[in-house]
Each structure stands twice: as C-alpha cells, then as structure tokens.
Amino acid sequence: MAIYRTDPDLFFLAQCHNDDLEFLVSLITHDPKDGSLRWSETLSGSEDYKRFYPNHQEYWQGIAAEVQTFGANSFVNILRRGKGVMYRELLCDACDKMKVNYSKKASTENIELNMLMKVLEKSLSDMSSEQLKEFATGMEIELTNPTPELILMAIQTAIRASGFAAYKMAVVVVSTVAKALLGRGLQFGTYVLLTRSISALAGPVGWALSSLWLATDLAGPAYRITIPACLLIAYMRQKALYLPV
Predict the structure, then answer these.
(1) Predicted TM-score (pTM) of this structure
(2) What is the pLDDT of residues 40-84, one digit of tens each?
C-alpha cells in the first residue's frame, strides 16, 4: 500500500468537496477507456477506501499517498517501501514534460497556474476565429478581434488583479479536461458565461490532450495520470482559495 509522506502542498485536500475528490480518485484508480482498475494502483484495496468510500474526505491522506507514488517509478517505490515523491516534485516533473515555462522558485500555486495556462495556450492556438470570440465572451474578456495572444495576456492580467480570474480559468480548463478524460465535467453551479467558455474550449482541449498523450506515451504511462492529476489538484486548490468550504 502507498504510504503518505507529510506534504504541506496537499493538506488542503482534507477540506475539498467529495464531488471534486471523486474525479481524482476515479483518475488514479480506474482506466477511463474501459473502467477497469489500474494495475499499478493500491488505493482501492486499502482499508480506509473500503470503509469510507465515497466519503473521500475521510481518507484524503490515502488519496494523497497514491498521487505521490505515481510521481516515481514502481522500482523506486519499492526501495522507498511504498513512499512516493512530494507533490511539488511530481508537479515540476509534469511541467517539464509539458514544456511549461515556470520558475522553480515560484509558489506551488503559481506553478500550477502556469501548467493550466500551457493547456489553455495550446487549446487557443487550435481555435477558429468564432471559437476565440465565444471563449473571450465566456471569460468576460472585451476584445474586438480576439487572438490567442491577446486572450492569454488578458487572462494573465486578470489573474494578477483577482483570485476569481484564476478560479475561472481553472474551472474552464479542468472541467473540459475532466470531460475529455472521465466523461463528465466539474460541478460548478449555473454560471452561464463559464458554461459558454467550456463549450468553446471543449474541442481544442481534446485535441491538445490527444497530442500531449501521444508524446508522453513515449516516456511511460505514468504521465497519463500525473499530468491530469496535477491539473485536477490545481483546480481544487483554486476552489479552496476562492470558495472555501
């Protein structure tokens, strides 16, 4: 079984909604293609999982431990007696694989935001003019002729000015990622504009993910878990910061 390493970057999982934790649990335990259990996961066999599922908050440390172990190869995990790597190391490794531009001196939150921006950047580059306009409207960005570059600049400016902008970006990107990978989007209420942004982004995010997964396959299947896991955790962190329970 995976053994949790005390990790300040994952403490907040204890306060996350079970609906959001369900996405993370599903990702690390089941293959989205056919719903089968992943051969490398140990969470579903743990006593806490069997006792508390689907009340994921009750065994958040087990979830965190499983995430940590996906950040190291199985042989190293054996040497560490079931202990994985700290979340920040896992995050930076995933960012390096995605060629995310970030500073290793930055906060974990900012590195996660850079990762989200990388997915968004790739997705915007594949959008038509109409999709860009629809996305800009959904994100409440006022641009006469929106381009990927202008949209990204506007979002970065908004994030520096307001935590809500970071939360909005996380919702839009990760809801689309979750739907592409797990077949269902995030539960974020009835904010109509965000719904329009997600609709506009759906296709391009799917294309970006397909390209990304093709590349990461060459480096091992663990990235198919660690990259979306980091994106989900990034979203949950923004939600915890902006909409605390």
Answers:
(1) 0.87
(2) 889 999 999 999 999 999 999 999 999 998 865 543 443 345 688
Name the token pair of 155: 């979002």
| SS3 sequence of the chain | CCECCCCHHHHHHHHCCHHHHHHHHHHHHECCCCCCECCCCCHHHCHHHHHHCCCHHHHHHHHHHHHHHCCCCHHHHHHCCCECCCHHHHHHHHHHHHCCCCCCCCCHHHHHHHHHHHHHHHHHHCCCHHHHHHHHHHCCCCCCCCCHHHHHHHHHHHHHHCHHHHHHHHHHHHHHHHHHHHCCCCCCCCCHHHHHHHHHHHHHHHHHHHHHHHHHHCCCCCHHHHHHHHHHHHHHHHHHHHCCC
Q: What is the pLDDT of residues 101-126, one digit of tens each?
A: 999 999 999 999 999 999 889 888 88
Name the token pair of 47. 């006593």
